[in-house]
Design a protein that fits this description.
Length: 222
């Protein structure tokens, strides 16, 4: 007899899954939230469909190319085997799936360096400016990754310029970072539960570049 799945799509919010009776959302939303969380409401709650931007398409293309190149030389292995190997040597993984059932988040880490001393979690971004929203996203990956490992090696959060080897921002995932990102994740869950309202940005520059600006009733005048 086939075991019944404990994962189901959310009935009204796209990209949200219900895993073990808890909402679970993509970690990339922590980046979107920092830009304008009302955009998440428009796209995933109201279901408004907007074509992806040129930057989004370029990012998808670069990710796909890097993943294809990586797989050409990579050796198949399990997550547990990677952890064991990294205790005595260095190992690299790309597009590593991570999930936290406890905090209700999931995603794919662009790249992870595993060494005997630490884990370096890398998220690729266009440009070289460490926006708080980008930092929130990579901290979300760190939190989910931490839940998956049975040890306490240091975890380093890093942002890298897309298509290069330039890591332009890095920070240890310490107690403060963990506390701050958990607070933000909890806010996201309250939004999804309808306990609080999604807020629109008060930055007109963000409205100007937002792909929802032609239909958003809360956009700033510019």
């Amino acid at each position: 007899m086939k075991k019944k799945s404990n994962t189901t799509p959310h009935p009204t919010i796209s990209q949200v899954k219900i895993i073990e009776e808890r909402n679970n959302f993509p970690i990339s939303w922590l980046n979107k939230q920092g830009f304008c969380e009302y955009g998440i409401y428009l796209e995933n709650v109201k279901g408004i469909e907007i074509k992806p931007t040129k930057s989004m398409l370029e990012g998808t293309k670069v990710h796909a190319t890097l993943e294809t190149n990586f797989r050409e030389d990579a050796e198949p292995t399990t997550f547990d085997e990677m952890l064991e190997t990294s205790k005595t040597g260095e190992i690299l993984s790309r597009e590593l799936p991570v999930m936290s059932k406890q905090h209700g988040i999931r995603g794919f880490i662009d790249e992870v360096w595993m060494t005997p001393d630490e884990f370096v979690i890398i998220d690729d971004k266009p440009g070289t400016r460490a926006y708080s929203s980008s930092i929130n996203q990579v901290f979300g990956y760190c939190l989910a990754f931490k839940e998956m490992i049975p040890e306490k090696r240091r975890i380093v959060a890093s942002l890298r310029q897309r298509g290069t080897e330039n890591i332009y921002w890095a920070s240890y995932f310490d107690e403060k970072a963990e506390k701050d990102i958990i607070n933000l994740i909890n806010r996201m869950h309250r939004l999804l539960e309808g306990e609080i309202e999604f807020k629109a940005t008060d930055n007109p520059n963000k409205c100007r570049s937002c792909r929802f600006n032609t239909i958003c009733e809360r956009k700033m005048d510019f």
